[in-house]
Amino acid sequence: MRTLLSGSPDQISLVAMGDNGLKRTGEDELCAIHLRNRLEGRPGDIEAIRRLILAGGEVGRFYDPARPYLHPEDVDIALDIDRYDFAVRVEFENGRPVARMERSN
Protein backbone atom coordinates (compact mmCIF):
# COMPACT_ATOMS: atom_id res chain seq x y z
CA MET A 1 0.00 0.00 0.00
CA ARG A 2 2.81 2.41 0.82
CA THR A 3 4.10 2.23 -2.73
CA LEU A 4 0.70 2.83 -4.28
CA LEU A 5 0.07 5.86 -2.11
CA SER A 6 3.62 7.25 -1.90
CA GLY A 7 3.28 9.55 -4.89
CA SER A 8 -0.19 10.82 -3.89
CA PRO A 9 -1.64 9.73 -7.23
CA ASP A 10 -4.85 11.26 -8.54
CA GLN A 11 -5.99 7.87 -9.76
CA ILE A 12 -5.11 4.23 -9.09
CA SER A 13 -6.32 1.60 -11.55
CA LEU A 14 -6.67 -1.99 -10.45
CA VAL A 15 -6.60 -4.29 -13.45
CA ALA A 16 -7.61 -7.90 -12.93
CA MET A 17 -6.05 -9.65 -15.93
CA GLY A 18 -7.69 -13.04 -15.43
CA ASP A 19 -6.73 -15.78 -17.87
CA ASN A 20 -4.55 -14.09 -20.51
CA GLY A 21 -6.65 -10.96 -20.29
CA LEU A 22 -9.52 -12.80 -21.98
CA LYS A 23 -11.43 -14.57 -19.23
CA ARG A 24 -12.25 -13.38 -15.73
CA THR A 25 -10.83 -15.47 -12.90
CA GLY A 26 -11.81 -15.50 -9.25
CA GLU A 27 -8.35 -15.00 -7.81
CA ASP A 28 -7.71 -11.83 -9.77
CA GLU A 29 -11.12 -10.45 -8.82
CA LEU A 30 -10.40 -11.24 -5.13
CA CYS A 31 -7.01 -9.56 -5.35
CA ALA A 32 -8.56 -6.41 -6.81
CA ILE A 33 -11.24 -6.36 -4.10
CA HIS A 34 -8.58 -6.85 -1.40
CA LEU A 35 -6.49 -3.97 -2.77
CA ARG A 36 -9.54 -1.71 -3.11
CA ASN A 37 -10.55 -2.41 0.48
CA ARG A 38 -7.04 -1.67 1.73
CA LEU A 39 -6.86 1.55 -0.31
CA GLU A 40 -10.19 2.62 1.18
CA GLY A 41 -8.88 2.02 4.70
CA ARG A 42 -10.64 -1.27 5.41
CA PRO A 43 -8.64 -4.17 6.81
CA GLY A 44 -8.22 -7.23 4.66
CA ASP A 45 -8.81 -10.82 5.69
CA ILE A 46 -5.80 -12.53 4.17
CA GLU A 47 -6.70 -16.01 5.43
CA ALA A 48 -10.21 -15.74 3.96
CA ILE A 49 -8.75 -14.72 0.60
CA ARG A 50 -6.36 -17.67 0.64
CA ARG A 51 -9.18 -20.10 1.46
CA LEU A 52 -11.40 -18.72 -1.33
CA ILE A 53 -8.61 -18.91 -3.89
CA LEU A 54 -7.68 -22.48 -2.91
CA ALA A 55 -11.35 -23.49 -3.10
CA GLY A 56 -11.70 -21.97 -6.58
CA GLY A 57 -11.01 -23.78 -9.82
CA GLU A 58 -7.92 -21.96 -11.02
CA VAL A 59 -5.28 -23.42 -8.68
CA GLY A 60 -5.51 -26.91 -10.20
CA ARG A 61 -4.03 -25.78 -13.51
CA PHE A 62 -0.68 -25.18 -11.77
CA TYR A 63 -0.50 -28.92 -11.07
CA ASP A 64 -1.51 -30.02 -14.59
CA PRO A 65 1.38 -31.88 -16.34
CA ALA A 66 -0.05 -30.72 -19.68
CA ARG A 67 0.89 -27.16 -18.66
CA PRO A 68 4.62 -27.34 -17.89
CA TYR A 69 4.87 -23.56 -18.14
CA LEU A 70 2.83 -23.25 -14.91
CA HIS A 71 4.76 -23.99 -11.73
CA PRO A 72 3.16 -25.28 -8.49
CA GLU A 73 5.46 -23.08 -6.40
CA ASP A 74 3.82 -20.04 -8.00
CA VAL A 75 0.67 -20.85 -6.02
CA ASP A 76 2.55 -20.43 -2.73
CA ILE A 77 4.16 -17.21 -3.92
CA ALA A 78 0.82 -15.79 -5.08
CA LEU A 79 -0.86 -16.69 -1.79
CA ASP A 80 1.86 -14.87 0.17
CA ILE A 81 -0.29 -11.74 0.17
CA ASP A 82 1.52 -8.41 0.62
CA ARG A 83 4.84 -10.14 -0.14
CA TYR A 84 6.18 -7.47 -2.46
CA ASP A 85 7.06 -3.87 -1.71
CA PHE A 86 6.57 -2.51 -5.21
CA ALA A 87 3.84 -1.46 -7.58
CA VAL A 88 3.79 -1.11 -11.35
CA ARG A 89 3.30 2.48 -12.50
CA VAL A 90 2.04 2.91 -16.06
CA GLU A 91 2.52 6.24 -17.79
CA PHE A 92 2.01 7.22 -21.39
CA GLU A 93 5.12 8.19 -23.35
CA ASN A 94 4.80 9.16 -26.98
CA GLY A 95 1.23 7.87 -26.94
CA ARG A 96 2.21 4.41 -25.67
CA PRO A 97 1.82 2.92 -22.19
CA VAL A 98 5.12 2.26 -20.42
CA ALA A 99 5.17 0.15 -17.25
CA ARG A 100 7.87 0.59 -14.62
CA MET A 101 8.40 -0.95 -11.21
CA GLU A 102 8.15 1.53 -8.37
CA ARG A 103 9.32 0.72 -4.85
CA SER A 104 8.09 2.28 -1.64
CA ASN A 105 10.45 4.70 0.08
Task: Explain briefly what this protein structure is.
By secondary structure, the protein is α+β, with helices and mostly antiparallel strands. The chain has helices at residues 2-6, 26-39, 46-55, 73-78, and strands spanning 86-93, 96-103.
Description:
The protein has helices spanning 2-6, 26-39, 46-55, 73-78; strands spanning 86-93, 96-103. A hairpin with a 2-residue loop joins strand 1 (86-93) and strand 2 (96-103). 33% of the residues lie in helices and 15% in strands. A two-stranded antiparallel sheet has the order 1-2. It has four helices and two strands. With 105 residues, it is an alpha+beta fold. The N and C termini lie close together (11 Å).
The strands making up the biggest β-sheet line up spatially as 1-2
What's the helical proportion of residues? 25-40%
Segments where pLDDT lies below 50 for 5+ residues?
none
Number of helices: 4
Count of distinct strands: 2
> What is the 3D shape?
globular
DSSP strand (E) fraction?
A: 15-25%
> What would you report as the Rg, rounded to the nearest angstrom?
15 Å
